[in-house]
Amino acid sequence: MLIPVFVSMPNALSDAQDAAQRIILGELGHNRIEARTLGKTDYPTTYPLREVITLAKHCSGGLILGFSQFEATSGTWKKDTPFKEIVAENSIVQFPTPWNQLEAGILFALNIPLLVFRESGVSGGVFDNGVTDLFVHTMPQPDAEYNERNALREVFQKWTAKVRAHYYDEN
Predict the structure, then answer these.
(1) What is the dihedral sign for C-alpha 29, 132, 102, 137?
(2) Residue 50, Cβ density class (10 Å: 0-12 exposed, 13-18 middle, ≥19 buried)
């Protein structure tokens, strides 16, 4: 039997992002966990946000994949405040899909074990260290060394233990 977990990720990925996603979904499979994703495994029949809540209630874990979906090369953070910060010249600010933030908040509120990954350069909200009690992991690289792959496997083993505990406590 596969235990369902909600996976928050964008539907459109670059080739490199897709390779990282396949590594992560492969780890789910190794741990006998079923990925449930709105727009890939489950399709809305009502409002998408309502579907997220419905699907999340039937899952025993949450996996947030923060892939960059928008890049900005100029701009101002917190304009007209004492904390104003201008994006430095020759730098890029990367943003994940806003759905990552919404879905992470729903899963957190449901007290479902979360595992969060972010692509290099992605920050803000759930992707900032210290916002939750979670450690935010760097997205795995397809050319990762043996030790890095083993570390990733250990992260998944620890998280899936919590997912299984949640599943068997709830059912």
Answers:
(1) negative
(2) exposed
Distance CA 19, CA 80 (A): 41
Domains along the chain? 3-170 (3.40.50.450)
Closest CA to 164 of 59, 64, 63: 59
Are 77 and 84 within 8 A, CB to CB?
yes
- Counted residue by residue, the chain has a size of 171
> What sign does the CA torsion over 69, 35, 28, 8 have?
positive
User: Per residue of the chain (171 residues), what is the pLDDT tens digit?
Assistant: 899 999 999 989 999 999 999 999 999 999 999 999 886 766 667 788 889 999 999 999 999 999 999 999 888 889 999 998 888 888 888 999 999 999 999 999 999 999 999 999 999 899 987 766 678 999 998 888 888 889 999 999 999 999 999 999 865
Q: Give, in order, the Cα–Cα distances in Å from 13 to each of 5, 52, 123, 164.
A: 20, 20, 18, 29
Crossing angle (nearest 10°) for helices 15-30 and 146-170: 60
Identity at 115, one-letter amino acid code: L
> What's the pTM value of the predicted model, to 2 decimals?
0.90
